[in-house]
Specification:
This protein is α+β, with helices and mostly antiparallel strands and about 250 residues long. It is built from 10 helices and 9 strands. The protein has 2 domains: about 90 residues, Arc Repressor Mutant, subunit A, CATH 1.10.10; about 150 residues, no CATH class. Strand 8 and strand 9 form a beta hairpin. Helix 8 packs across helix 9.
C-alpha cells in the first residue's frame, strides 16, 4: 500500500511527538483503500520495529480527542476503533479525503483555474486606454470573456468566435504602435494570458502598457513586435511581486 503524507503533519499538534507521528505514518502506509488498519498492537510493533510499549502509548494519543486538531471530525481523533469490543483494529479518520487529493501539480493547476474562474473580463461602454491623436478611442460595446478555457481545444481566432452571429470582433483594449495605428487586444487573448500569468492583473497591466506607450512614443513597437512586448511585460509582472511600483520601463527594455 501507499499513502500521501502532507508536510502539515509536522506543523500540527503532533509535531513535537515524533514517536506518535512516526507510528501514524506507518498506519497510513498500511491502511487499505478505506483507511482501515486491521492489525493488533503486537503486529504493528513487529512490522514497524517500534517497541510494543511505545506503539501502545502512541495509539493512545492517536485515539484521544484533540480540540486543537485542524479537523473537527471525530472530535479531532486521528484513528477510531473498528469494534468497541476489541482493543485493536482502527480506521484512519479523513483517510479517503486526503488520499483523493490530487498531486501537487494538479492541485496548483486547480488553484489557478479556481482563481481564473472568478476573473471575468468586463468592458461595458468603456473607452480603450489607448489614445490616438489626443482623443480616446470610441466606446466599446459590452464584452465578457470567461477566462477558464478548455486546454484540450485550441482557442479559436476572434473572427471565428463571432462568425455565427456575423458580428465583427471587438477589441477590449488597443495599444499605440510606432506607425500611429493601434494594436487590438481581443478577449480570447486576455483569457489566455490570465491563464498563463495567474498572479498578474492582466487587464490592468494592459492599461498600464497603453498609457506607457502613449507617454513614450519613441519606444512604441511595430505590429509584429507588439505581442513579444506584451508577453515580456506580463512575464516580468508574474516574476516580480508588486510593491506599489510599476514595472513598465524594465519591461520595455
Amino acid at each position: 500500500m501507499f499513502a500521501k503524507v502532507f508536510a502539515s503533519l509536522w506543523d500540527g499538534t503532533l509535531a513535537d511527538q515524533w514517536e506518535t507521528w512516526s507510528l501514524f505514518v506507518f498506519m497510513l502506509a498500511h491502511a487499505d483503500q478505506d483507511g482501515v488498519v486491521d492489525m493488533t498492537h503486537g503486529a504493528i510493533s513487529r512490522r514497524s520495529c517500534i517497541p510494543l510499549e511505545k506503539v501502545t502509548a502512541a495509539i493512545g494519543v492517536l485515539e484521544a480527542a484533540d480540540s486543537r486538531s485542524r479537523s473537527s471530525e471525530e472530535g479531532g481523533r486521528r484513528i477510531v476503533r473498528l469494534d468497541g469490543d476489541r482493543d485493536w483494529g482502527w480506521r484512519v479518520v479523513n483517510y479517503a479525503k486526503y488520499r483523493n487529493l490530487k498531486d501537487l501539480d494538479q492541485r496548483r493547476e486547480q488553484n489557478r483555474a479556481a482563481q481564473a474562474k472568478h476573473r471575468l473580463i468586463r468592458v461595458c461602454q468603456q473607452p480603450s486606454a489607448a489614445v490616438s491623436n489626443g482623443q480616446p478611442s470610441s466606446p466599446q460595446v459590452e464584452v465578457e470573456a470567461e477566462v477558464e478555457v478548455d486546454r484540450t481545444e485550441p482557442t479559436p481566432p476572434p473572427a471565428l468566435a463571432l462568425q455565427a452571429t456575423g458580428e465583427a470582433p471587438v477589441p477590449v483594449i488597443e495599444l499605440p504602435l510606432r506607425d500611429g495605428t493601434l494594436f487590438p487586444v481581443y478577449p480570447h487573448q486576455i483569457a489566455r494570458w490570465v491563464r498563463t500569468f495567474p498572479d498578474v492583473l492582466v487587464l490592468d497591466t494592459l492599461r498600464e502598457m497603453a498609457a506607457w506607450l502613449d507617454a513614450n512614443p519613441g519606444r512604441r513597437k511595430t505590429r509584429r513586435g507588439c505581442p513579444r512586448f506584451v508577453t515580456g511585460w506580463l512575464l516580468r509582472e508574474q516574476d516580480t511581486p508588486r510593491s506599489g511600483a510599476h514595472h513598465g520601463p524594465q519591461a520595455a527594455r
